[in-house]
Amino acid sequence: MPRTPRAIVTRPAQEADVWVADLRARSVDAIALPLISIAPADAQTLRLAWRGLAQYDAVMFVSGNAVRHFFAQKPAQATAFFGALDAPLRAWVTGPGSRAALLACGVAASAIDAPALEGAQFDSEALWQQVRGTVVAGMRLLIVRGSAQAEEGSAQGVGRDWLAQQVMNAGGAVDFVVAYVRQAPVWSAAQAAFIAEAAQDGSVWVFSSSEAVGYLRASLPGQNWAHARAVATHARIADAVRQVGFGQVMESRPVLDDVVASIESNA
Known about the structure:
It is a single chain. The N and C termini lie close together (9 Å). This protein folds into 2 domains: 7-36 and 185-264, Rossmann fold; 39-183, Rossmann fold (3-Layer(aba) Sandwich). The chain has helices at 13-25, 43-51, 64-72, 96-104, 124-131, 162-169, 189-198, 210-219, 235-244, 256-264; strands at residues 7-9, 30-32, 37-40, 58-61, 90-93, 112-113, 140-148, 173-183, 204-207, 229-232, 248-251. The chain is an alpha/beta fold. 36% of the residues lie in helices and 19% in strands.
């Protein structure tokens, strides 16, 4: 029987460690190589956002990191917001990882809107199909997101994304708050040597972010990826990986069973 190839998990460190443990539990050799480092954003800005939550109808969290860093600054005196009877604030997320982060922070499942777990994809388009019926003129949405290091200080992070535009097109208003800062990795000589080896030894790189792909390309501009293999958790990410020059790229839903199946198919 062919041996399942090693998986290289490129998510930020905290998420990568969870994925590595889950993959190893499924008998997949896995190693973490975070391609994005995460640093907290301005704490005072987040505390002010918490104090202003009563003005919003929903809060969209773009990732599990957005959830964790936002809730890390929750004021001790803050009353319940999400799902409270007197202030039924909704929490929007695009995938199961962010939903799990909300549950871990004490948000009731009944207050969370997310794409169906059995759906084909977890992204803003899939989330919009779930929430569009609740968006009316005058509705107010807060988007909690990250910011690239070069954009630090921008209230919008990386700008108004597709879902925000849909809300505004429907007559709603959208505000942004940056909960964390994404930074490019800095490789040691040993790490660079490992990456060069993993680009041609049959390892399967697991990508969940187009930005991470860009960081990898920028940090190793001379690397040849023609013999490298990858699994990407969205079509847009897969396109970014192909542009880097990976020789084999498969698409997968960002859930463990599907990622494992994609990795095993490379055996």
